């Protein structure tokens, strides 16, 4: 199958799964209760999601300012042992100054230039790897529908993920970083302990490992 056709099928799968993505955290929680495995916790989609990001794992090129960051990991099934190959992973984030590539919240379908966004498939061992920069913190924009009471709240640094596989419940989540002083006061981050990782620093960049566990789909 050529890449264009594969990408087209994947995008249709993505759209088809979109209807349950916002409820993915709830479904995953129910599955966790039944299966006894620490399924990765779901999170809000956030106002800066845009569909149609390019297939790429290198989100930040050499011209992107900021501290270099590599995040890698494995997507597992609900037994926490079986890798999930071919899972579709979408990633997006703010730049080092806390700004997204669109200044308009809710700009979901803009087909303009994408920056610090990408999609990829997990490999045969269920592994993924992204190269990017450390995201900056930013305040919640004012007057967002449903989030008005959080306007002005400073969010901890985070990277957004959406993960979809045909045999599992899709999950939307945000990855946070241990030691961020804004996690404790954040209404989303402080309860999602499975989504907080520790980073290591080497001579060139920070590195972190983030494994994702998906709940099995309901039969």
Please provide a written account of the structure.
The protein has helices spanning 3-21, 24-35, and strands at residues 68-76, 88-93, 117-121, 127-133, 138-139, 154-155, 158-164, 171-177, 196-197, 200-201, 206-209, 212-213. It has 219 residues and is of the alpha/beta class. The chain has one domain (3-213): Protocatechuate 3,4-Dioxygenase, subunit A. Strands 1, 4, 10, 11 and 12 form a 5-stranded mixed beta sheet that branches. It has a 5-stranded mixed beta sheet with strand order 3-2-7-8-9. It has a two-stranded antiparallel sheet with strand order 5-6. It is globular and about 40 Å long. The chain starts with a helix and ends in a 6-residue tail after the last strand.
Q: What would you call the shape?
A: globular
Look at the structure and give the mean pLDDT. 84
Largest sheet: 5 strands, mixed
Q: Percent range for helical residues?
A: 10-25%
Strand residues, percent: 25-35%
Radius of gyration: 17 Å
The CATH first-level class comes to Mainly Beta
The CATH topology label is Protocatechuate 3,4-Dioxygenase, subunit A
For the termini, the CA-CA separation is 29 Å
Fourth-tier CATH superfamily name: Aromatic compound dioxygenase
The succession of helices and strands, N to C, reads HHEEEEEEEEEEEE
Separate helix tally:
2
How many structural domains are formed by the residues? 1
- The CATH architecture designation is Sandwich
């Amino acid at each position: 199958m050529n890449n264009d056709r594969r990408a087209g099928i994947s995008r249709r799968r993505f759209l088809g799964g979109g209807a349950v993505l916002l409820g993915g955290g709830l479904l995953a929680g129910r599955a966790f209760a039944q299966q006894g495995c620490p399924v990765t916790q779901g999170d809000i989609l956030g106002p800066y999601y845009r569909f149609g990001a390019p297939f790429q794992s290198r989100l930040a090129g050499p011209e992107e300012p900021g501290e270099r960051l590599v995040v890698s990991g494995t997507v597992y099934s609900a037994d926490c042992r079986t890798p999930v190959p071919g899972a579709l992973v979408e990633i997006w984030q703010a730049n080092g100054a806390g700004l997204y590539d669109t200044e308009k919240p809710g700009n979901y379908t803009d087909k303009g230039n994408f920056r610090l966004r990408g999609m990829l498939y997990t490999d045969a061992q269920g592994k993924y790897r992204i190269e990017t920069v450390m995201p900056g913190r930013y305040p919640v924009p004012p007057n967002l529908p449903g989030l008005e009471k959080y306007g002005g709240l400073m969010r901890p640094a985070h990277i957004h993920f959406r993960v979809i596989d045909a045999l599992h419940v899709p999950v939307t989540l945000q990855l946070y970083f241990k030691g961020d002083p804004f996690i404790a006061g954040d209404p989303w981050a402080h309860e999602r302990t499975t989504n907080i990782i520790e980073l290591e620093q080497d001579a060139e960049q920070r590195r972190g490992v983030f494994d994702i566990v998906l709940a099995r789909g309901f039969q």
